[in-house]
DNA sequence: TCGCGTGTAACGTTACGCGTGACAGGTTTT
DNA sequence: AAAACCTGTCACGCGTAACGTTACACGCGA
């Protein structure tokens, strides 16, 4: 797999993209209805769908319950996305610290 | 594996705990020195070590560079920790939405 | 035309990571 | 004993970000 590869060709999908492209078309609900169902504002869901907001812990919980794929699925998706972009910008550049793993159990 | 198990016996270690117990004792640096090395305030590092703050994206980048284990290591640790606690509190409780995966490629 | 779904901007609230300044207790060094 | 250092923690202000509410605009189908 390529998860640990330093440079990926393109950014991992934003959670909102997954929701918009893979899920929304298959549940027969409008954005307004889904928002109400999740217990969030229509704007909050819209912002996520259009990738203007990140998936928060609370949002991840709600999505995970609604679609039965758990909190971790959505949060990991967001993390993946964040890391990719973080590695593009100017990294803080910290000098490595040489150290040895502790062999004690 | 037990990662997806609904209920784990105890909480995954806080990132600060890993840093405090596994790393700090093996690098021969004081908290003050490490903070300076990372380019963060002593208070910020102290808060993390004592598990009063979470690992931010920026902090994860710095730790990952310093200890050569990457941003993802620290961020995933924090995520694991957050999820565990989120599942303990009162979940938002959202009704499941039945849906079918899209079979189209 | 009217109603509905959607995107978006503006405003205030809340939460949190962070830096700086400051104080206290403990340990080491002189 | 006194000075120097390490560490934890509190207070303050700042910047950022998610969220709800209100409001406006556009598109589409009835």
From TrEMBL, chains A, B:
Lineage: Bacteria, Pseudomonadati, Pseudomonadota, Alphaproteobacteria, Rhodobacterales
Domain HTH cro/C1-type residues, every copy: 28-74
Keywords from the UniProt entry: DNA-binding
Pfam family, one: HTH_3
PANTHER family in UniProt: ANTITOXIN HIGA-1
InterPro entries: Cro/C1-type_HTH (IPR001387), Lambda_DNA-bd_dom_sf (IPR010982), Toxin_antidote_HigA (IPR013430)
Chain coiled-coil ranges: none
Protein name listed in UniProt: HigA family addiction module antidote protein
CDD domains: HTH_XRE
Example GO molecular function: DNA binding
